[in-house]
Amino acid sequence: MKPTITAFERSPDGGKGLARDMRVRWALEETGQDYEVRLRSFSALNEPAHLALHPFGQIPTYEEGDLTLFESGAIVLHIAERHQGLLPVDANARARAITWMFGALNTVEPPVFDRDLAMILEREEPWYEQRMRVLEDSIRKRLGALSTRLGDAEWLDGRFSAGDLLMVTVLRRLKGSGMLEETPNLAAYVARGEARPAFKRAFDAQLAVFKSASTGG
Ligand code: GTB
């Protein structure tokens, strides 16, 4: 049975693939799964039909038979656990890959997300410059540590895993900030992720949705 995910009918990122359905699409593509997409407007996110799928009224969600999931990390883990390609078979290597998934979402994503949010919500506030400095210092601290750990390796722990998939989607949100370029090995790491055929398929699919909304269908 094909899973169905939800995504924005018109993503505010203008088709850059920065919304969190992108990581789910990418995981589905990496594992060779066909899927359906149900598009949602912002207002539809708070309607009962969507709240029944997602208690916080967000995208993405994932439906497969009688299973409904929300939280992009949980959805990627579910896909990775049920299909080959995103988690190693060896139990310890698998645990380490899952550790990187949590690292991406719990340690690296929060300051990256907060910076994006501050740029939207706090730009006119008197504390904006100071807040941005604090957030960018936090991000640089994480990038420095991640860059040191990655070193010259291709991926974070051996072969490409769901940990890399999530980390690359998080780091992509720094494009255009100049911060990613300060750690050239991380910029190359993101480029390697984006060069994967599965990433490209996922990216093109979300871009097609955005373009279709922009041209009126
Ligand atoms: N922790 C949840 C998860 O990982 O699934 C967070 C989900 C989430 O934040 N969803 C956002 C959403 O539905 C879309 S992805 N927001 C609507 C709401 O909360 O009312 C976040 C996002 C939005 C826009 C951009 N952008 O324009 O670049 C990037 C990311």
Explain how this protein is built.
This protein has two domains: 4-85 and 198-215, Glutaredoxin; 91-196, Glutathione S-transferase Yfyf (Class Pi), Chain A, domain 2, CATH 1.20.1050. The chain has a four-stranded mixed sheet, covered by helices on one side. It is an alpha+beta fold and 217 residues long. Helices cover 55% and strands 8% of the residues.
Write the layout of secondary structure elements.
Elements: E1 4-8, H1 21-30, E2 36-40, H2 48-51, E3 61-64, E4 67-70, H3 72-82, H4 91-121, H5 128-150, H6 162-172, H7 184-194, H8 197-214
Parallel strand pairs: 1-2
Antiparallel strand pairs: 1-3, 3-4
Helix pairs in contact: 1-3, 1-6, 1-8, 4-5, 4-6, 6-7
Bound molecules: S-(P-nitrobenzyl)glutathione (GTB).
- From the 3D structure, determine the CATH topology of the largest domain: Glutathione S-transferase Yfyf (Class Pi), Chain A, domain 2
How many extended strands? 4
Determine the strand fraction and express it as a percent band: 5-15%
Assigned CATH architecture of the largest domain:
Up-down Bundle
SSE topology string: EHEHEEHHHHHH
Number of H- or I-type helical stretches: 8
Low-confidence stretches: none
The main pleated sheet reads as: 4 strands, mixed
Helix and strand content put the structural class at alpha+beta
What is the residue-mean pLDDT, rounded to a whole number?
97
Domain module tally: 2
Rg for CA atoms: 17 Å
